[in-house]
Amino acid sequence: MQDDKTASADKSDWSEMMRASLHGDAAAYRHLLSEMVPVLRGIVRSRASGMGMDWCEDVVQDTLMAIHLKRGTWKPELPLRPWVYAIARHKIVDAFRRSGREISMPVEAFADLPQPEPDIDPMESRDAETLIDRLPERDAALLRCLALDGHGNDECGRRLGLAPGALRVALHRALKRLAAIRREEGL
């Protein structure tokens, strides 16, 4: 068990190593990063229950990259550890957000499902077209391609020049805008 002086000295060592690295001491910087890695791994693993080791290692690497890129923003008169821990917290949150947006089942898995025969009321189709016409052109073209023309994601992506991920994002945004228009109309 460390006493307060030893713990305090350990914490100031990181600060001293960072100060030295900011003055061009590459060896101090390498040593600092090598000391940070196990600490960051522990922080990430303790907050990432249920996430795999690859996920944790990616977050550690993202954190180290952010520290490297932003090291010039650290104020040398302040302790380094709180600054490092704040970056780690932000990178963990970012990674959870990213993983929450990922689809665990590929869209292609749904391609072979039988599609119900559309029973389209011509009035509903005209109403949909009227609402879609109020969207920005890119959103309108995407919704027309998918919903009104009945093309699949791949075909619409090719027609509009969108990668699969960009198509999903664009579709989500188009549907949000369409929902806002419907709310305005009281529909």
UniProtKB/TrEMBL annotation:
Annotated GO biological processes are: DNA-templated transcription initiation
UniProt entry keywords in alphabetical sequence: DNA-binding, Sigma factor, Transcription, Transcription regulation
Q: Which residues form the RNA polymerase sigma factor 70 region 4 type domain?
A: 128-178
From which residue to which does the signal peptide run?
none
Q: Which ranges carry the RNA polymerase sigma-70 region domain?
A: 37-101
Supply one GO molecular-function term: sigma factor activity
Q: Which domain of life is it from?
A: Bacteria
> Does the keyword DNA-binding feature in the UniProt annotation?
yes
- Where does the chain cross the membrane? none
Extract the PANTHER family matched here. Answer: ECF RNA POLYMERASE SIGMA FACTOR SIGD (PTHR43133:SF58), RNA POLYMERASE ECF-TYPE SIGMA FACTO (PTHR43133)
Family designation: Belongs to the sigma-70 factor family. ECF subfamily.
Q: What is this protein called?
A: Sigma-70 family RNA polymerase sigma factor
* Biological source species: Paracoccus onubensis
